[in-house]
Queue: 2 jobs
Job 1
Amino acid sequence: MTRIPIVIDGRTVEAEPETTVAAALLNDGIWGFRSSVESEPRGPVCAMGICFECRVTIDGIPHRRACMELCRPGMEIETGG
Amino acid sequence: MAETLKTEVTVVGAGPAGIAAACRAAESGARVLLLDENPRAGGQIWRGTRCGRGPAGARRWLARLSDSSARLVDTTAVVDTDGDGGLLVERRGEALVVEGERLIVASGARELFLPFPGWTLPNVLGVGGGQALLKSGVSFRGRKIVIAGSGPLLLPVAAALATSGAHLRLVAEQAPAHRVHGFALSCWRYPGKLIEATRYRAAFLATAYRTGVWAVAARGDDRVEEVVLTDGHRSWTEPCDYLLASYGLVPNLELPRLLGCAVDNDRVTVDDHQLTTVDDVYCAGEPTGIGGLELALVEGEIAGLAAAGRDREETALAGRRRRLERFAAALAHAFAPRQELAERVEVDTTICRCEDVAWKQLHPAGSFRQAKLATRVGMGPCQGRVCGPALALLRGWEADRVRPPLRVSTLGVLASRSKGPAGH
């Protein structure tokens, strides 16, 4: 199956088919997905949509759970929000 | 007004219980809608199952589901009741109302997380969280991993990680040796479970599996780099790229509680037909008591038959359900979190990860409600799903009343309720 081009913080990378955004970010060496109320880096914890720690901006929409979204071609992901 | 979907049986949750319920109800001739938040059916345990991939049982049930007339509505979260017997749900930012004559709640379970110094560092995950990430496509090849948690889930997760090429350094079970061994001995009645456990253990033989060991702190700069472990006498440090630390499962009771179903001791009260105390609302799987895959399937089948009016066909399943319930009780006893896990918390330890509320801020409060008002604990986007069960254990606080919306949602979705909010 062909790999899926996605854009992470302005860089184009290729994700494997059927991977979630969370998986694509971790595989790209990003573990701080967002910044907490006290500005601590946070990343996925439950990976099943419960904890909301993996929130990123996807195609301009903030607070999307990276663990609940499959990578789609051309998807733009912003971390650190 | 939101679009309305009408059906006979609505099933919430497409994990094993929901899939079994949807299949049985649909095969009995009922019109069935199966809702799930995830993009694929399978729940947590069958995540990542596709054609030619995943356990045979999972593939069989998923094939049975797609052969049935049940319609899967994926990427869909229940937000509220619509005030009129239906459910207000959100799908890709749009509101929908689902009106079913009967409802089967199969909302599953989440992991129990307990706070300890450093647990908020990136790459400190749940045990099931690690498994979910692996199934979602994360490559752990060559990564140093320590698992320090509890329960039978440790074995398949360790096996899967080792098989995927991870450098698994230690598997630590917090339960003491005598409990774990006693449980293993009691498993002679369930040879299938023992064979399964042995098969998993064989997949990570290069790594120690130690009972009576738990993590006391995670350390690192911008992610976990090492974990401090203890056996109660001696402490030591293990370097790691990922730490998997969670302590079994807690049921997702928000929807049944919102619907008014009686809950006793963290279990939705159900009768022999999986019927709750609310008319036409059934419940199956983990919310009726943590029991694992096979019990969830049996309960789902019973609920599906009952909701389709085929009660008499359930009898054959009732015996299996009783046997599996005994196994679940033994499991809960063996892997109960030890007191020392609650004693790891320090004054500055973050308890509420959404709002960054530290232990010392909670100290004066006497109840979850008081603490919420004073500190915003449990009021972030997870709505207390992580810190709530932790505070039940740390402080003995009962969960606060469930209030809609059940999920963070948009004003547009919330505005599409056909009636005013309950109680107004």
Job 2
Amino acid sequence: MNIAVCIKQVPNTEAQVILNDGILAFSDPKKIINPYDEFAIEAALRAKEQAFPDASVTAITLGPESATEALRTALAMGCDQAIHITHEPHPGWLAPLTVGQAIGAALRQVDLVFCGRQGIDHDDFTVPYVIANAHQMSCINVVKEITYKPEEKKLWVVRESDGGQKEYFECPMPAVLGISIGLNKPRYPSLPGIMKAKKKAIESLNLTDLVSDSNCTWIQPSTYELPKAKEACKMIKGDIAEQASELARILKEDLHIV
Amino acid sequence: MKILVIAETKESKLKSTALEMISFCQQAKIPFDLLTLGPAEDAHTLGAETCIGVHQILSARDSASLVAQHLPAYTLILGTASLAGKDLFARVSAQSMRHLYQDVTQLALQGETLTITKPIYAGKAFAKIEVNTVPALVTVRPNALGVHLTEQENTSTQTNKSEATTTTDREVLTKVEQGQSERPDLTESRVVISGGRSLKNSENFNILWQLADCLGGTVGASRAAVDAGYATHAMQVGQTGKTVSPKVYVACGISGAIQHLAGMKTSKHIIAINTDPDAPIFKIADYGIVSDLFELVPKLTEKLS
């Protein structure tokens, strides 16, 4: 029984984007694990603890050298081993189809795959589906609840859709689940966990060994832009009653919203 | 050159997101077909050459197979960047191995070259990308293109019913529970009233709901308010929540953390209400009021009703 969890290193959410001569940079160089992926790691560990005690949990990432830190954190949280798919540096980013194909090829035998619902960098929302397609697996994204039926090789899954709609699925394994915030409470790595993680194996694979050159697509934007600077905010003065009247007038007459 | 628009419907009417995509095709003078995956096969033509409907309600997996089947006839397949739309398009992309660009805010199609603009880092920056791999799949962020229809019903539109196959060997939808309300969805609403941690508890969000109802809008929340348990994660606006671009966004007691601003910066008009005149939210607001939201918001609701 093999469980995998796909993680990605992304810029800190509190970092500001800076544009220098058309090159994108961040006000804070610190990188974090994609916040959705922390919930995916926790879900993978709980699947093992609660339903599949014999399972082995593999954390997998595709990214630069620094992404090893994200894998070490996943190992410290309790994952058993890790795979790091490395690639040559590139100014753009890999198309989600390519990422999904690479991860799909790296995961040879797998019964359950957990991913964050999307990366907070490009919000593509696509990689889980591509992995699922590579192995003819079930796929459900934006998962809010999971119940395991190990003896039937099935899961009961609740997905959130638009307007707070809840969709209930009966889902045969193997399956890929895209995890949303709020499914669980991700654990912190313990000190013994951190010590053990240093000894756990990280297998290194190269992108070019997993995806053929003709299938490897990089997204290279022609330009980047920052959001347009706003004109100075118009402050509405006066006492509360005057402020409320003026704002009501703006909503009605200027913005035509009423 | 032809576009296939995948239209979402609600109560047998095309959603405004579909009208936005139709407006785009009309303005660019590119012929298009319309595929509705709604429960009723409503003949909403609006200038489409062909209207494709389906007999039965399909699972996301089967809907994706249907779209993938039609895909080779088009240069571009357009859909909505809603949770349902992104799910559908990701399935089509995986099945057909065609590249997908989600949550696009601007697009132009010239010959075989598609140019898209896509927010990255939740809108902290925008990337302009030239796409040469057609047919391409694109989902468009609600409210990004705007509705400006130039034609009404096209009498020469043909209506086709597509035969869809159904599969049941993988995930099966067993039950659907509708969300709470007749209120608009957060990502599609024209008006969003958001509250921060200074709302102090979940009951106090009622004053925001009252204002939202009076403006036909809905309520959002900052991550701080969600983390404190005053609002649900489904209401969270920001980099790890929802990205919204309504016509009017009213930030009540929200200081303006970078990750929150990322999720609402593209709103057309931003109104900020905060007791702290130095709050960063005022830097990106169009209108600012330094005032106590507990006094101001009910008064505003009263003036508007």
